[in-house]
Design a protein that fits this description.
The protein folds into two domains: 272 residues, TIM Barrel, CATH 3.20.20; 105 residues. 48% of the residues lie in helices and 14% in strands. Helix 4 packs parallel to helix 5. The model has no long low-confidence stretch (mean pLDDT 93). The protein is α/β, with parallel strands linked by helices.
Length: 379
C-alpha cells in the first residue's frame, strides 16, 4: 500500500510528499512541471493525465499548447461522437467507436510519444471504462445500440493501447479512471485485462458492514505480467483507512473536496518501497519470456530440421524416380530401335518377295506369249 496524490493544477507540497513507490497524477496543463521529475527522482511514479473520451470546447489560455498536444494539436481536428453528446457543458464526447481515427491517433501517435519522452511512468486515462458517468450525459436515454457502440469502442481503445505499450515498453503503466462492470448485477465487459488497474473514485470500501462492490472489484485479475495498480480516491480519511486494508487496492489518497484535486494533500497511508520487489518480478518476467521464446525457437528449429530432412528425403526419392524413369526410357528406346531394325528387315524381305513374284509373273507372261506365237505359226 502506498500514497496517491493528485496535482491537477497546483504543485504545493509535492516535493515534501515524494517518496518511494507513491503515485502522483498530473493535470492536463502542468505535466512538464519540474516538480514531477523531482518526485520521480525520489522513487515515486508520475502518471500523465489524459482524457480520451471527450474534448474541451476551448483551451486554457495559460496551457493551450500543452492541452492541444493531447487533442491532435488542434481541438477542431478531434473526431466527435455526434448527436451533441457531452461529458460536461464544455466538453463534447469524442468518437471512440471501434476503429475510429481518434483511437488510431492515440495508439499510433500520442501513446508512443508519451512513452518515448520518458518523463512519465504511466498514463491515467480519465473516464475510460464501461460507460461515461457525466451528469449531462443522460446515458440511460441513449439507444441500446449507441450504448453498445460506446462500450465496445472503449474496450477496443483499452485493448489497443495496452498492446501498444506492451510492444514499446511493458513497464509503462496504464490505469483507467473507471470500472469495466457497472454493478454486481451487470455483466463485465473485459477491459480489466488491458490495464494495470483502475481508479476507484469516491466509492466506499464498506457498505452495510460488508465489503462493497468496488472493494471486491479491485481484487480481481487485471493485465497479466504487469504490476497491479488500483488507485483509490477515498470519501474521507476514515474511508481511506478502510481502503488501506482491501486486497487489491495498491494506492490510496483522500480527494473529497474540489481543492484536494488541485494540489497534493498529506498522505493517508504510509510508504512501502516496492521498487526492488517489482524489479525482481520484472526480471523474472523477462526471464520467463526469454525461456518461452527459447522454447518456441527450439520447437521451430526442430520443426525446421524435420522439414529439411523430409525435403531431402523427398528430393532423393525424386532423383531415384527420375533415374529409374530415365533407365526405363533408355531401355524402351533401345527396344524400339531393335524393333525398328527387325521391321526394316521384314520390309526388305517382303519387298524381295514382291520383286520375285513380279519377275515370275513376267516370265510366265513371256512364256505364254511364245506359246501363243507357236500356235499361230502352226495354223
Amino acid at each position: 500500500m502506498n500514497p496517491l496524490f493528485l496535482a491537477y493544477s497546483g504543485l504545493a507540497n509535492l516535493d515534501a510528499y515524494a517518496g518511494p513507490s507513491a503515485i502522483v497524477v498530473t493535470g492536463q496543463g502542468n505535466p512538464y512541471a519540474p516538480e514531477f521529475q523531482r518526485f520521480r527522482d525520489k522513487g515515486g511514479k508520475v502518471y500523465r493525465y489524459i482524457i480520451p473520451i471527450s474534448v474541451v470546447s476551448a483551451l486554457n489560455a495559460g496551457s493551450a499548447a500543452v492541452q492541444a498536444e493531447q487533442f491532435m494539436g488542434d481541438i477542431a481536428k478531434v473526431p466527435l461522437w455526434g448527436n451533441d453528446r457531452r461529458n460536461s457543458a464544455t466538453a463534447l464526447l469524442t468518437d471512440i467507436r471501434v476503429g475510429s481515427a481518434w483511437t488510431d491517433w492515440h495508439v499510433n501517435e500520442l501513446l508512443p510519444m508519451l512513452i518515448d519522452q520518458k518523463l512519465w511512468d504511466g498514463v491515467f486515462y480519465d473516464v475510460l471504462g464501461v460507460r461515461p458517468w457525466g451528469v449531462t450525459l443522460q446515458w440511460d436515454t441513449w439507444p441500446e445500440a449507441e450504448r453498445q457502440d460506446w462500450t465496445s469502442g472503449s474496450v477496443d481503445f483499452a485493448r489497443r493501447t495496452h498492446e501498444k505499450r506492451m510492444q514499446l515498453d511493458p513497464r509503462f503503466e496504464i490505469v483507467h479512471n473507471n470500472v469495466w462492470q457497472q454493478s454486481a448485477k451487470s455483466a463485465p465487459v473485459g477491459g480489466e485485462k488491458y490495464c494495470n488497474g483502475v481508479c476507484i473514485e469516491h466509492k466506499a470500501a464498506i457498505v452495510n458492514g460488508a465489503p462493497s462492490f468496488h472493494a471486491k472489484y479491485v481484487g480481481r485479475d487485471f493485465a497479466p505480467g504487469v504490476p497491479k495498480r488500483n488507485l483509490i480516491l477515498a470519501l474521507s480519511d476514515a474511508d481511506a483507512a478502510a481502503w488501506a486494508t482491501v486486497p487489491g487496492a495498491t494506492h490510496v489518497g483522500s480527494a473529497y473536496t474540489a481543492a484536494m484535486y488541485k494540489a497534493p494533500t498529506p498522505p493517508v497511508v504510509p510508504y512501502e518501497d516496492l521498487r526492488s520487489v517489482e524489479n525482481e518480478a520484472y526480471i523474472a518476467s523477462l526471464r520467463a519470456q526469454i525461456a518461452d521464446q527459447k522454447a518456441r525457437y527450439d520447437s521451430l528449429f526442430a520443426l525446421a530440421e524435420t522439414a529439411v530432412v523430409e525435403a531431402r528425403n523427398e528430393r532423393d526419392a525424386a532423383i531415384e524416380q527420375r533415374n529409374t524413369a530415365t533407365s526405363m526410357y533408355d531401355k524402351a528406346a533401345a527396344e524400339r530401335d531393335v524393333a525398328a531394325a527387325e521391321l526394316e528387315e521384314v520390309l526388305r524381305q517382303y519387298q524381295g518377295a514382291l520383286d520375285r513374284e513380279a519377275a515370275a509373273a513376267a516370265a510366265a507372261y513371256s512364256l505364254q506369249a511364245k506359246i501363243n506365237a507357236a500356235r499361230s505359226a502352226l495354223g
